[in-house]
Amino acid sequence: MTTACRHGNYLVEDVSFESSRLRLAGLLHVPEHTSAPLPAVVILGPFASVKEHSPAQYATRLSDEGYVALAFDAAYCGESAGEPRGLNEPLRRAADVRAAIDWILARPEVDPTRLAVIGLGDGASEVIAVACEDDRVRALATVSGVYRDPASDRQLVGDCPETAPSGSGHSAEHRLEARATRARLASARYDELGEVDYLPIVDPVRTDVALPGVEPWRWYMSQSGRGLWENRYAVMGDLAYLEFESLSAARALRVPLAMLHGGRTPDGNSARRHFDAVTGTHKELFFEPNASRYQYYDDPSTIDRAVRNLASWFGAHLA
User: Fold this and answer.
1) 240 vs 246: CA distance, rounded Å
2) pTM of the full predicted structure?
3) Domain edges within the chain
4) Backbone angles phi and psi of 43, in degrees to 5
């Protein structure tokens, strides 16, 4: 027998906190009619998204389940501070998660011994990097993750001809290097002139954008009215993005892991590689063969099922 998630039994507070001298904006969801101290969860969203996108879907539902839930804008994005705007660097986003942990554990409603972290999309690989080094994290969940290793980069980035025309015969490795070269040139331009090179995050036709293809374009544009979001990103951020990998962090992970993944995602092999790499802790894979990446971001039924699994998992591992 399944039970439906309850909705609306929480209060939302606009909050802010500092991360490396930058002010970050967040939405704190606090359960009503419950007694403190409560378990807490920090949620990091997908690449170049904002807190009002998929993080809010999970924060509201988990707050209904009794968790103090924080969704926030990473530095340089949304309502958070930082220049240049639209800079997306994995290690910087990981540092923002650590700052969010610092802040939420100081809240009077929160039990500091019961903290979970969730990463969605690219946030999944970044929170693995956090959890393998931060023993304040007692449980970890990755949802529809973009997991970073050379093979997944070749599939997700190199196989999309961002900088090489279709049919050019350029290999995935050449396309990855072309994207890195583009980022190096953009970084040099910023250092020399203070000018930022921007490209769209998504576009249904263009292949030089951050996330080529119709499916990402449909989802991001469907969210464009939620929060302070722009369809552009700082190209120089690709340099740090392409240098990041999460497989070594998965091997070092000692925090209980719940991985939620769908069968209709383009990088299922990378998810499996990361799941198999985790050998030092309890882990569980919640697999939906017919779910796509973006169903975990905005489909109510898929998210409700995901939150039921998360609430059960966290309940067992944050006791």
Assistant:
1) 13
2) 0.93
3) 10-317
4) -120, 125
- Domain 10-317 is of which CATH architecture? 3-Layer(aba) Sandwich (3.40)
- Specify the 3-state DSSP secondary structure of 261: strand
CA distance 221 to 213: 12
What is the full per-residue pLDDT of the chain (319 aa) written as tens digits? 334 445 678 999 999 999 999 999 999 999 998 888 999 999 999 999 999 999 999 999 999 999 999 999 999 999 999 999 999 999 999 999 999 999 999 999 999 999 999 999 999 999 999 999 999 999 999 999 999 998 888 877 655 544 444 444 567 788 889 999 999 999 999 999 999 999 999 999 998 999 999 999 999 999 999 999 999 999 999 999 999 999 999 999 999 999 999 999 887 799 999 999 999 999 999 999 999 999 999 999 999 999 999 999 999 999 8
Which SS3 state, helix, strand or coil, does residue 89 take?
Answer: coil
List the structure tokens of 37: 């101290």
